[in-house]
Design goal:
Shape: globular
Strand order of the largest sheet: 6-9-7-8-10
Helix content: 25-40%
Strand content: 25-35%
Oligomer: single chain
Number of helices: 11
Largest sheet: 5 strands, mixed, barrel
Amino acid sequence: MNKNYYAIIMAGGIGSRFWPISRTSHPKQFIDILGTGKTLIQNTYERFLKICPKENIYVVTNEIYTGLVKQQLPDMTDGQILTEPVMRNTAPCVAYGSFKIESLNPDAAIVVAPSDHLILDESAFISTIEKSLETASKNDCLITLGIKPSRPDTGYGYIQYTDQVLNEDFHKVKTFTEKPTLEIAKTFLQSGDFLWNAGIFVWSAKAIVNAYGNHLPDMHEIFAEARPVYNTDGEKNHIHKSYLQCTNISIDYGIMEKADNVYVLPSEFGWSDLGTWASIYDLAEKDYVGNAVIPADKVIMYDSSNCMVNVPDEKLVILQGLHDFIVVESNNTLLICPRDQEQNVKQVVADVKQKFGSKYI
């Protein structure tokens, strides 16, 4: 196992599209949302244990989730749990992890991944990451993983690539497009040179630190100034103060769309970003009429089909004459909505917060 390989797991989001199961106090990355016996962050951590030494894995999360990380990943030391005092999108979180690792090991190659993705083909994922880390170690490049699209999905970002290659398989990126319309997504699929953006990145510590210098110089300055305090008792206090100065911007907008040394590796490893209840429904086991029930112990269905049902173990639920619906209960809240209108959940959460405050959020 290569001592220069590191992983940063991003685990700061609140997963509002999975409300009411995902709450601000206990978001989806800390939930066994697929009923597998392990939470999403536990699965992510265990995948990276097969790629780099356990002391080289870092989790960046909101300070309020420190206890959850320690409880679910007991092998992690305090120094491996990097906490954010506020949410500032992905660019500051990636900067924090990358600058800290660079100060420890200037020869580091780093993979950055969200904590809440599903990977069905683990061996293909591991070989893809190892190949990317090796390429990043030897070249001044920023690598993103692209997934071969199977449908014109409007919920994903798309990456267009050229024929120019690095190390045979890594294609120069031409454009990034965020969540296109259905018509545009169809043309992307037909053209054959677009991939879904998996939101998984690989680079050397040197390359990403330089990229911040070139494209987000203010952020570069904030985290470069912290070099004397990384891996000391003063780190947390210093970072928490300086974090408040960070711009709220994603790594995609802040760096990947601006840099000219970005490459994409077309990949296939059974990936899903588990962004919506529809994605859970697609992946869950279903009965002969298309109902996905997690857990299924006390749910009785009559003349009902193609429903996604997620209710507490102890709750007896009877559904009759319900077709193509999402039924979710958690934390004293019941949500029932048509499967094709689940994109409204974010708005529902906003309305509930306005009407009842944060009690149910």
